[in-house]
Specification:
Elements lengths: L1 E2 L11 E14 L4 E4 L3 E10 L2 E7 L1 H10 L5 H11 L10 H15 L1 E18 L2 E19 L5 E9 L4 H19 L2 E2 L8 E4 L1 H13 L4 H4 L18 E3 L18 E5 L2 E2 L8 H5 L7 E2 L8 E2 L3 E4 L6 H5 L4 E8 L3 E3 L4 E13 L2 E6 L2 E6 H6 L2 E3 L4 E9 L2 E9 L2 E3 L6
Helix pairs in contact: 1-2, 3-4
Length: 420
């Protein structure tokens, strides 16, 4: 058993026991079969010793034995935890014949092999003390991974994933629709843009979510903020129409250290920075109140302040009102995951799918290009927000730790740079 910190006291208020399950199915439309990969399960126990975090990583049975023998927890609590965490974890595929039929249609139409895998991820969390179980939570989602391969050359043309929280026939149709859109984009003749700063930029809500999450959200995690240039800029602010809320609409009540998650935290209000995302660990380092954002992505990762569900307050008008008046712009449909340098405030992301805007209309597909911003440059740009929000899910990596995140966001517009 791996103990990440030496225990200093025999008394602990709460324990957080987490088991994560993974089960994967792979689809073959050509042979009409589904392959089930062996399921996996990992377990860990987290608790705090005043300022230290102790993380025990082992099998569920070993952890429960440790709690019983070493921590003297009552047997009824041990049995309760065991019953909840040892439940079987499985999923079925709806309307499988129709799904195979749709996949075959897509393959025949574009002379491609479409390969889809679905991975079920389920995280079960129990928080308890010597008096009993305080809280139980189950979080389930699915990762649709897809590869598109040429029939003749067997070279991979597309590869990506989509996160969904439910598994219905419509979810498959949405995935296949997205694959077809990307195949069509791949075959189109594209133009190459130069001097991208001279173009107005408009973002599909999915791209808006990635942009705000990667570029602004990470800088407002306490461990990043206090090493960023923002800490030295007392008067830093965005335009007044920017309002960002975190821990939006969460049904979870406790984080991975067993501390209360504070919902609907105002990170940015009327352009001004109001709060940071913090945890019970980092609050002592940065002298900031914990927001309950201690999240551990996997068994081998440490616990950091992490975003969970970001909400961007919408504007008053549809983004189309501005887009249709744009003479020279780019409509961004899809971003690859970006990277922010938290020490400099620089952000870089690849724009994978975008369209040229001329005289208020999307006219041509654009070759993929790199988009770069600095946080202070963005603060001086005019930002437009659409009047409708949509919710999307994604995976976020931080220091080797992967977690599921959500964005509820409107479409975004960024007016061209006014620099000479």
């Amino acid at each position: 058993m791996n103990v990440k910190s030496r225990e200093k006291s025999s008394k602990y208020k709460t324990y957080t026991l987490v088991s994560e399950y993974s089960s994967t199915k792979i689809f073959s439309a050509a042979n009409q079969w589904i392959e089930d990969l062996p399921p996996t399960v990992t377990s860990r126990l987290n608790f705090m010793n005043e300022y230290d975090v102790i993380i025990l990583q082992h099998s569920l049975s070993s952890i429960l034995s440790y709690l019983s023998k070493e921590k003297k927890l009552p047997q009824n609590i041990i049995e309760n935890a065991k019953n909840i965490l040892e439940d079987q974890c499985y999923f079925d595929i709806p309307a499988i014949e129709q799904i195979f039929s749709k996949m075959k249609e897509l393959e025949k139409k574009y002379c491609m092999d479409v390969r889809i895998a679905i991975e079920l991820k389920e995280k079960r969390k129990i928080i308890f003390n010597h008096n009993g179980v305080i809280y139980v939570n189950k979080e389930r989602y699915y990762i649709f991974s897809y590869n598109v391969v040429h029939h003749n050359t067997q070279q991979m043309s597309l590869s990506d994933y989509i996160i969904v929280e439910s598994l219905h026939y419509d979810d498959f149709l949405n995935v296949l629709q997205r694959i077809e859109e990307e195949i069509q984009f791949m075959f189109k003749k594209k133009i190459k843009l130069i001097d991208i700063e001279s173009y107005d930029l408009y973002f599909h809500p999915y791209a808006t979510g990635i942009f705000f999450h990667e570029f602004i959200g990470h800088l407002l995690e306490a461990d990043h903020f206090f090493t960023s240039p923002l800490v030295y800029q007392q008067g830093f602010k965005f335009k007044e129409n920017i309002n960002i809320i975190e821990n939006y609409g969460l049904y979870q009540r406790y984080d991975d250290l067993g501390n209360i998650i504070y919902p609907n935290i105002e990170l940015v209000k009327k352009g001004k920075l109001k709060n940071l995302l913090n945890s019970e660990i980092t609050k002592y380092i940065y002298r900031q109140q914990s927001s309950g954002n201690a999240i551990q992505g996997n068994n081998t990762a440490d616990i950091y302040p992490r975003m969970q569900h970001m909400y961007i307050c919408p504007g008053a008008k549809p983004i189309e009102d501005s887009l249709t008046q744009t003479m020279k712009g780019v409509y961004v449909k899809k971003l690859n995951m970006g990277e922010v340098n938290t020490y400099t405030g620089d952000f870089t992301v690849e724009v994978e799918m975008s369209y040229l805007i001329e005289n208020g209309k999307c006219t041509s597909e654009v070759e993929p290009f790199m988009m770069t911003f600095n946080i202070f440059e963005l603060a001086n740009r005019e930002l437009l927000l659409g009047n409708e929000v949509k919710t999307f899910y994604n995976l976020c990596g931080k220091r080797g730790s992967i977690v599921k995140v959500a964005y509820t966001v409107p479409a975004l517009g960024i007016k061209a740079s006014t620099k000479e």
